[in-house]
Design goal:
Helix content is 80%, strand content 0%. The chain contains 21 helices and no strands. It is globular and about 60 Å long. The termini are close together.
Length: 428
């Protein structure tokens, strides 16, 4: 039980939960990292932007399943334990990655190829929809009151690390394979790696320690987790999670997922240079998360979120507008890094803030479902919207769109209580 865990046992549990989260997000981000290479196999076209638009559409389709995964697996984690939810999510992610790795291209099986790609992304969408709520809840409940911000920040550390590992695999393959080999078959390798790692993590997660919050809620006969329980008894918290997520998630995806394509398609840089910039900036971004999380344990969660909102509103348009005209890789890296530092005010603590809003018996669902809905509406569509504006010669409208969404979230940050002082996670 968490109340009797030593610091070493607590750390081991958090590392164990985080390792699985890393693999899950690696599998999810591998799709985006290798889109430039596999898009022609599934969507034949002479227009690169049209190919990327099609692939981005399926990336968004994966997000459509995230609320369903959050709903089903959030309830499952609340009723059967955080450990069980984490184990189930990684099994689904494994199946989706392996399906992408072995699916033939459009030239061999026609429309079946993109349909299988959609099926794989649907499976991964269900998985990642449940993963966020279960892992955010698990890390927050296992962290301990005094360092909850610090330890729960590793939810995003491993999320970013998963994306970073995907980019590193891309960079390595770009060095050891020719461009033709990567275009022809090399893009399948990362998906095979992800499937294999997910199998390892499946067995790792079976040995995790269950949280005290879940055990106490179950022993006390708390109400069962469910959609009606969430909406009828916790409507304010549910809406708060959606609105505080909207600006943060679209900003994060704009500076991470979409940035690689923006640097190639708008700034005119090579794919290799864009990948290197993305990799370096995300690595520094990852290191910042625990620092910001620890800072929130000292000064509270609210100041960090308000800081992100204010700077995001003021700086988003200038950063993207300048990047669009930048050809120097170092200057581009500094601009991207500036954007990611700003976003850290949201990413480092968003998991613990959401977990602290809900009681234990419905915490996984409360964290997962409204977050997944906001991600589907704003994060999952960010790349598609950006490319649509680009395709229609209105690219600057995307910068305005991101700024407006951050402003909406800022209004929520200003009005809400500081969850560090009003946490509903009761354990020390």
């Amino acid at each position: 039980m968490t109340a009797t865990l030593t610091e070493r046992q607590r750390l081991k549990a958090i590392i164990g939960g985080s390792a699985g989260n890393l693999v899950e997000w690696y599998d999810w981000y591998a799709y985006s990292a290798f889109t430039l290479y596999f898009a022609p196999h599934f969507f034949p076209s002479e227009d690169r932007t049209a190919q990327l638009l099609s692939a981005a559409g399926i990336f968004a389709v994966g997000f459509l399943m995230r609320p369903i995964g959050a709903w089903l697996m959030g309830i499952y984690a609340d009723r059967h334990g955080r450990k069980s939810g984490l184990t189930l999510s990684v099994a689904l992610m494994c199946a989706g990655s392996l399906l992408i790795a072995v699916t033939p291209g459009y030239e061999k099986i026609g429309m079946i190829a993109p349909l299988l790609l959609i099926l794989a992304r649907l499976m991964q969408g269900i998985s990642i929809g449940g993963e966020y709520g279960a892992s955010a809840t698990y890390l927050s409940e296992m962290a301990g009151r005094s360092r909850r911000g610090f330890f729960s920040s590793f939810q995003y550390v491993t999320l970013i690390a998963g994306q970073l590992v995907a980019i590193c695999v891309l960079l390595i393959l770009q060095q050891i394979l020719t461009e033709a080999q990567l275009d022809e078959w090399g893009w399948r390798i990362p998906f095979a790696i992800g499937g294999g790692l997910a199998i390892v993590v499946f067995w790792l997660r079976r040995g995790l320690t269950e949280t005290q919050s879940y055990i106490v809620a179950r022993s006390e006969g708390a109400p069962k987790s469910g959609l009606m329980e969430l909406l009828l008894r916790h409507p304010r918290e549910t809406l708060t999670v959606m609105l505080l997520t909207a600006g943060g998630t679209i900003a994060f995806y704009a500076y991470s997922i979409y940035m690689q394509k923006f640097l190639v398609n708008t700034s005119g840089m090579t794919r290799e240079t864009a990948s290197q910039i993305n990799g370096i900036t995300l690595f520094v971004f990852m290191l910042i998360q625990p620092l910001a999380g620890a800072w929130s344990d000292r000064i509270g969660r609210k100041p960090l979120m308000v800081g992100f909102g204010v700077l995001g509103v003021l700086c988003t348009y200038p950063i993207f507008a300048t990047l669009a005209r930048t050809t120097n890789p170092w200057a581009a890296a500094m601009l991207v890094m500036a954007g990611l530092i700003i976003v850290s005010g949201y990413t480092s603590i968003n998991a613990v803030v959401k977990a602290e809003l809900f009681p234990a018996h419905i915490r996984a669902l409360g964290v997962a479902l409204p977050y997944a809905l906001a991600n589907t509406l704003f994060g999952g569509t960010a790349e598609f919207v950006a490319l649509w504006f680009k395709h229609n010669d209105m690219e600057s409208a995307f910068y305005i769109y991101v700024t407006v969404m951050i402003a909406i979230s800022l209004a929520v940050y200003i009005r809400m209580k500081d969850t560090a002082k009003h946490s509903r996670i009761l354990e020390d």
